[in-house]
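for the writeup, i need someone to sanity check this before i put it in the appendix. the sequnce is what the collaborator sent (i think, or maybe the updated version? ugh). structure was predicted straight from it, no edits. if anything looks off just tell me and ill rerun, i have time this weekend
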Amino acid sequence: MTTTAIREKLVNYLQIADDKKIKAIYTMVEDEINTIENDWDDDFIREMEVRRKSYLDGTAKTYTWEETKQAAIDRVKRVIL
């Protein structure tokens, strides 16, 4: 089953699950949810804005998919050899 299909099934299930099950599911993932919510502190947001601005004004160094893929292949080759 694909991740997309799993997400869809979970979303559908959460709409009909009873309160006890919703609380149990939430308890299992609560720490991760809270961590994700807190990852974007003010410094992180400022950095993302700086990077966004440099991308939009054309001063950021960007790479095509082919360049990125080749760099990954070259790096793996260096590690293996």
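The CA atoms of residues 14 and 22 lie 7 Å apart. DSSP finds four helices and no strands in the chain.
thx in advance!!
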